[in-house]
Design brief:
The protein has about 220 residues and is α+β, with helices and mostly antiparallel strands. It contains 9 helices and 4 strands, in the order ααβαααβαβαβαα. It has a single domain, classed as 3-Layer(aba) Sandwich (NADH Oxidase). Helix 2 (about 25-35) packs across helix 6. Strands 1-2-4-3 form a 4-stranded antiparallel β-sheet, with helices on both faces. The longest helix has 20 residues, at about 140-155.
Length: about 220
Amino acid sequence: MEFFQCIEGRRSYRAFLEKDVDRAVLKKVMGAANRSPSYRNSQPWEVFIVAGEKRDRLAERLTRAAISGETPSSALPTPKEWPGALSKRMEEHTLLRLRAIGIDPDDEGKVRESGLRNYRFYDAPCAIFVGMHGPLAYWSVYDLGSFVHGILLSLEAQGLGGCPQASVTRYGNIIKEELSIPEEIEIIIAISVGYPDPDAPVNAYKSKRREEAEFVRWYGL
């Protein structure tokens, strides 16, 4: 796949085919993402990949926790508020995505059910968790973002799709317990992975982006 086509074609997929992901393909993805830059080559990422029965059991536990309102244990707390422009874009994105799959944003039941699909990894056959040793350092969290972007682009290049998910990591304690992850590792983000379902309406949705002129300032060019 041509480089810019890969970047511009990438999106967050939320519906997948019932087709397993081969370990060899994921190893290739991990090898490519591992070339991501990091502060002083610290390479802070730790990766945990789950599929099969273990994935199913984890999804069941996470869903139960979300339904019951279990107290979150996220390593990165959700900000109490966002700057106005960012908040507006987030709200618009949520409304457009719900309408794209035929859900009335005012229908609280359907909105909640849609949100619960997060914890089932959108029925993807595989989930990737990316973490790092605590205590958290700003530079290392930034490095993880670069690494995760590398994963997402590599998945796209391999004909796979991924959806980065923050909601799932609200229950990092459950993830760590199920996968026997050392206590000193903080789970930062999850990625649902599989072959995208081309017929699913949710996969036709592509989030909007600002025009370059809105965020780039030029000096001397």
